[in-house]
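Researcher: For the record, we're logging two predictions in this thread. I'll number them. Prediction 1 follows.
Model: Prediction 1, sequence and structure:
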Amino acid sequence: MRKLLRFLKDYKKESILSPLFKLLEASFELFVPLVMAAIIDTGIGNKDGGFILKMCGILILLAIVGLTCSITAQYFAAKAAVGFATKVRHALFDHIQKLSYTEMDTAGTDTMITRMTSDINQAQSGVNMVLRLFLRSPFIVFGAMIMAFTIDVKAALIFVVTIPVLSVVVFGIMIITIPLFRRVQASLDKVLGVTRENLTGSRVIRAFNKEQEEIADFDESNERLTDVQLFVGKISALMNPLTYIIINVALVILIWTGAIQVNIGKISQGEVVALVNYMSQILVELVKLANLIITVTKAIACGNRVQSIFEMETSMVDGNGSKKEDTGYTVEFRNVSMRYKGAGADTLTGIDFKAKPGDTIGIIGGTGSGKSSVVNLIPRFYDVTEGQVMVDGMDVRDLCRTQKPQGSVFRLRNAVFQRPVLSQRIAHTHEHTALDLSLNGDRIHNLAGIMCCVNLFDFAIVIQNNNMGCITVGDMTFRERYICTKLVGRLKVLVEEVAAFQLA
């Protein structure tokens, strides 16, 4: 969280003025008990109505000035907090854009979204509360104790004992709850992660009849989050009752001591009322301080989580674009293997093919076989574990970030379709034609039947010109490979027919 405070450097003025105006408000508030004491001892004691009206006017003036200072302080605090959150959000978004898919997969998109939204919002609330109350509350607490010493030293000793006891309770609960709030946010990430996986992978989950297992996994994660939240909530809930008990005991002792001092003529009745008011001010401010500490605790935990994303560095090193071969191929895979970070085995092994300009490549395989992984290696969303991916004669790892090959591969869109069966969607542009066929018609129905016979859950194909090839990914029998190869040839004829129909 401390490193995030650099985003407040453009709001130094607001960060200084807000606490100062709050301290000014607190100073006026400390004079209120003395005015009340004067009204009791002088105005009521002497039955002086004019003096009472005069003191009431002073109270109204103190209220107006205090309200003005409070509104001004709130304005500066809100401006600094909102500006801080905006800068953090922009910087975090820019940083995420520089991360590779490997880092995004490791952290998870749910985690990124949580950091960008709720965590930054919590940090914003923490900054706002700190600027408004972090100095004000301690100032009133210790200011009230000092003012009590000006009235009576013996009575003020009660304040000296009460404040440390309250501090032990408040800071003790804070120390206990800080790691618990971190656990709450981690459990929330788990729940969001399970939700994201189920939403994005619903097709696969239903295909393999895993709904009940996923529901059980979600219920377990949700129960864990609920248990942690209830536990930390119970501990935080002890704050108010414990502080009220301590303050009320201190008030009883203060009134008892004040009564004795009044009887012996050492202090007046108005001064006892002033001491009680000072004790009440301490109670109110310590409750505010306790709530502030809880908010700051959450803000620190959330700020540290945001900072952890800033500390992530991309694993991909930008190339210099200096190495180029005249291969004559637009895309070339040279014995490529790829393994995702943290995976126990390779996703792709020994992928080797070449594609000239105008060639059409069909990638066929079962769910999870690595079809999308093959396509993701071409624009270097991921780095290969072994081998080379060549685009226009250049290894994609040698390309600099701003350099774009001239080949047609980077003009393709929707290159891989993820469908359990064939469905219809024909899109034409001046750059490419993407095809996803439907169950309409006997010939298409027959092709869909072939797909079901070989037990394939995914089919991906890109149509450009008249050349067509086939790549099978994953474990497939000889019969399956044969049928898939024939299927690509039959699709070529079907593509021409459907395209001609659409263009007619």
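Researcher: Logged. Prediction 2.
Model: Prediction 2, sequence and structure:
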Amino acid sequence: MTSFELLKLLGNAQDEYIMDSRKRPKKPQKPPVLKIAALAACAAILIGLGGTMLYVKPWTSGSSAPTNPPETLSSPAPSAENGSTGEDVPKASANPLDSDGIALLSAAQSPAMPQTDAERIKAWQENQVSEDTSYALNAFAYQLGSKVLSGTDDSVCFSPVSLYQVLSVITSGAEGSTQEQLLSLLGQGDVDTLKTQMQKLYQVNQQDTDMDHLEFANSLWLDEKQQDGENQVGFHQDWVMQAAMNYYCDVYAADFSSGAANAPLAAWINQHTGNLMADRLESFSMSPNTVMAAVNTVYYHSQWVEQFLDTVQDTFTAQDGTQTTCDFMQNTDMSGEAVVTDRYTKSYLQLSSGQMYVVLPKDGVSVDDLLSEDTLWEMFEDSSYEAAQVEWSVPKFTTDTDLDLKDALTAAGVTDAFESDAASFSAIADTPLYLSSVIQGTHIAVNEDGIEAASYSLAGMEAGAAAPGEAPVVEMNLNRPFLYLITASDGSPLFFGVVRSVE
């Protein structure tokens, strides 16, 4: 019996029987228990990624969208309601295979969402990522940002933290130079450290209150039709289990060859991004040659700490010179902070669970002039804020972006993973695998309530070879192209974008 068949065997059981540094601004940051609201969501799909709890089940085109996994860490107790007697519920085992060859995928569920202030404070205190990882996340954002945000006249946004998590799962299944290149891009020395840091990143950012929400979810999709005969991939069950346990993956059997996996996969993404991607996911499809897919979603809900008091009509001058009349949100931060140079002015807006950093180029300087990796480091890591009265005028804007990230990742040094004759993912399967594509779609909207955004990334893997009145006044009138970086409470880069025009 193949490992895939073992996974399917477990999958055929009823669901209820399956066991489941960065530099901060000078304003003090509060733990997430004290935060409140702006909605942002981000989803990342890649080959071999996972998250939430492990349950393995086949999913065909006639299946409904998967439901949210249970909130507890243990298997559901037998009850008359679910028809279980308890006799056929798999028991936890240190050995993934019992004497009968049944796969026991036990308690691979994501950590429970903190429910009380005490739980949120404890999670915040115990799960801070290391300074090295904070540095690595920022380096990753600036390196990729310098590539994906430039070379166009359009507004662009992408999610560094979502892509980072997806690549982390892929890295866990890589070997040799393929793994070395991925680890170098991710700024990590080894996969064990990477795993531990991703667990901390996951747990420190999970929060759900009446007015504040940040949640990651992950899933792994294994192709069903390409397991027969000579095309058998031979997924390694130990790797699948470890991906589920370490990265909190849901695991599903899928049929990519016929296209039957497209609808359920799109439904899963939509479900975990607050239905914000519904329209764009209607035409979602993957190559029929895909043998594995991984999905990461980030859902973020947070409001401005200081609400915008006025909305007025003003003119935004786009990068191509086009002028658009639109709504501008206005407010004055009497105790604000800013960095003023001869090339740009930088300040930040406080969110209930994070910050929105904004860089406004000076007249005569374009956003593209500031999009080199070194300049991004200089701008966003410069902590030499000075007290200022910041006069904000922010256009309400919406940006939809679709990115093909293969070229950017290749330019960043990840080359072997995309070459069928060079890639090594032998920890994942017997059959040689390689990354065929990595794409990301993002939606972000900024308005009086805060930020509403959603993003998905997809990679396909195929088989092959001072006191008020004393501070200076700083105007942040965003009436021309500008850069922004939205971070979580721990400083992790959630969304990174440039506004070149408004709609």
